[in-house]
């Protein structure tokens, strides 16, 4: 009765929504580039291991290859599929009343359904819930293989369920089903063997799951951020690991967590509150359902799913769409007390509805298994290609273009290479072809390549483009103004671009203390200039980045921002600009970085000044390994190996810090 009352309240209080007019994005650019790499055997800006293959392939198809009819079909499936499948799972386990209640609760009380390609996870979790319901009632081999297949298919989309198989194995062992424990505990991981082999062949290290975004979220979570962020994670703090290296990231996160236990617990609690606050009514319904029907094994299995989904996410930074798979599980739990309540239905009708529900779950499971298997086949093919040639080489890209000359994303990737090589007209043609093919984020690049080749900046509005692309577009405008000699306007536009990139970093980050932990301006400068570096023709020095030095002199930020500007200018091959930024840092009263300034001076051709700055840095800190390595390299270049060796030995004797290994390598065997 309590569930019925809560369901009625949900129907009355929840807002009505139009599924037809929902505004849906078809995946992020990083997903698309990873998927395109798998499709064509040629990596672009994002390595395929950044996301799991099925998710990135779905994004590539929906953003770059699928027709509008296919996109509309996906939209309908993403919105209506969970309702139908939730009714099927509840109906197969408990009959018509439970099916109707589960669908109604999911339709009226859950947050707006996601239309991202990873909305498929809502369907996958329902397939898994159906398999677990049957398995929890009778733990035999056939049902164990069904659970293993559902988990294996989900691994192709996300690493969400990576730690669930051992828990299910313990469940089976408690029931004395050793064979089932072996199946559910180990068999799911066989599905990702092709993925591990492919990433080992292409990147030199195996990635069992996604390596990029997951690593960023783990790093942000260990630092205490509640929400996810956009941008370069290295700007959040000093000494962070490479998010693509899962082992290094996990090791660092464990140390950070142990050294800041109270911060960790506080962040985990706030993330749990965030999850409940997303949909408090479904949580209340699910709690009542659990209490009323706890004796049923499928209810315990679904409760395990719900708790697991929360527990696996709270150690890392989160966002709302990560919990899309959770709402169907809560609907199943809320409807559980209605199982086997016929309310006037005849027994044959009930039996037919249960068979229909079981059939729908089996069909959905088969479709997921086929999709996951196809993704792994493409991953295996990509790995095989990588063994014969580097997948990110120019030859691989040209081979892919020969097979698909009109592919918009491949034209975008080649345009970037041509732009960097200084072939501006050819780059512009590729960018324009990419725009014509539907890749909107190529539009600023097409406009900018035209500007650099002597034309005017012809750029339409950046509305609707990814956040980072909008910031880059404003910066291109700053460069155009600088070329016209309008220094004041160019400086203002350069600052506006930094502010746009800083806002980009806050798009997904929770409010309050989490934002305060972000080094906002430094992060924005570093990310903006890092976005720009691969696009600047070699040998060309841009005017707009230098204008930030003048702007920062008028509005001096913290030391990290100055340092980010100096290093960014260095990456843009503007060594004189980097020296100016270091000087501006000192003039602004920020703590100087003599070692970095010395390197900039050397690279700018001012070797005597650079040697003096590096020597001064070592006099102030004899263990400053970066200064020792840089000074030693300068001395070796001047034909003074003995003096260089003495510099390395003194720095090593003083400690050497994290670069002791490099100092030893420079010294060579004794």
Walk me through the structure:
The chain is mostly helical and 670 residues long. It contains 33 helices and no strands. Helix 23 packs across helix 25. The radius of gyration is 28 Å and the shape is globular. The model is unreliable at 1-23 and 509-517 (pLDDT under 50).
Short description:
The protein has 33 helices and no strands.
Which SSEs are present, and which pair or pack?
Elements lengths: L1 H12 L15 H12 L12 H13 L2 H27 L1 H14 L10 H18 L3 H15 L8 H11 L3 H13 L2 H11 L9 H10 L23 H14 L1 H18 L1 H14 L3 H17 L12 H10 L11 H42 L5 H10 L4 H14 L2 H13 L6 H10 L14 H17 L3 H19 L7 H5 L2 H13 L11 H11 L4 H13 L3 H13 L6 H10 L3 H14 L4 H13 L3 H13 L6 H8 L3
Helix pairs in contact: 1-5, 1-14, 2-3, 2-17, 4-5, 4-6, 4-16, 4-17, 5-16, 6-7, 6-15, 6-16, 6-17, 7-9, 7-17, 8-9, 10-17, 11-12, 14-16, 15-16, 18-19, 19-20, 20-21, 21-22, 22-23, 23-25, 23-26, 25-27, 26-28, 27-28, 28-29, 29-30, 29-31, 30-31, 31-32, 32-33
Unreliably modeled segments? 1-23, 509-517
Percentage of residues assigned to helices: 55-70%
Percentage of β-strand residues? under 5%
Distance between the termini: 82 Å
Biggest sheet layout:
none
What is the number of E strands? 0
Using the CA coordinates, give the radius of gyration.
Answer: 28 Å
Q: Write down the overall mean pLDDT.
A: 79
Structural class: mainly alpha
Number of helices: 33
Based on CA inertia axes, which overall geometry fits? globular
